[in-house]
Hints:
This protein is mostly helical and 217 residues long. It has two domains: 3-29 and 144-211, Orthogonal Bundle (Endonuclease Iii, domain 2); 37-138, Endonuclease III, domain 1 (Orthogonal Bundle). The protein is built from eleven helices and no strands.
Amino acid sequence: MNITHKLSSKKQRALEILIRLKREYPQVCCTLNYETPVQLLVATMLSAQCTDDRVNQVTPALFARFPDAEALAGAELGELETLVRSTGFYRNKAKNIRGACRAIAEKFNGEVPKRMELLLELPGVARKTANVVLANAYGINQGVTVDTHVKRLSKRLGLTEQSDPVKVERDLIRLVPQEDWENWSIRLIYHGRAVCKARQPECGRCLLADLCPAAEI
Ligand code: SF4
């Protein structure tokens, strides 16, 4: 089979997967709690190596004390570290959050920029965080969010052989229609949490089993 055929059959499979996931998870949303794009950016930065539930436990006190970019830009680092401590890697996270908010306050009038290349200039912001913010805060699909669930499921489903998130994203961008890039990620995340778990995927009750090369039935 030549590469074109392989790509088109992968595309068909990706589309069928998406159709089934939309049917299974009709109402989905970002599971981080936030009220503004700045708060979503901060919550997403905190979610690295941490569950959304844990982040949602931390952010009410954090945003009550420091509600916007200007407030976070002026935060005392020790206090910020204490507030985000339970999300892990708290020293780096606090430093990056303050650094990113300083840049947002100074260069962008306190508003999170709407362009990928500007977001990537902020300390601690990589493509995953930028994609989440652009899609959920602004409705802009500039890429596919690749978190640990999207990476694991896309690989198991035979849609990428890559492990590096940027390369996984590059593969998915070729397979999934642009208007569905965020749909893809968010539904894969739901399915990863509910069925295709990291340690014990429940292939016996998976609606994608007949499309999945990794199915263990
Ligand atoms: S069949 Fe198994 S490995 Fe494949 S997506 Fe479903 S749960 Fe994951």
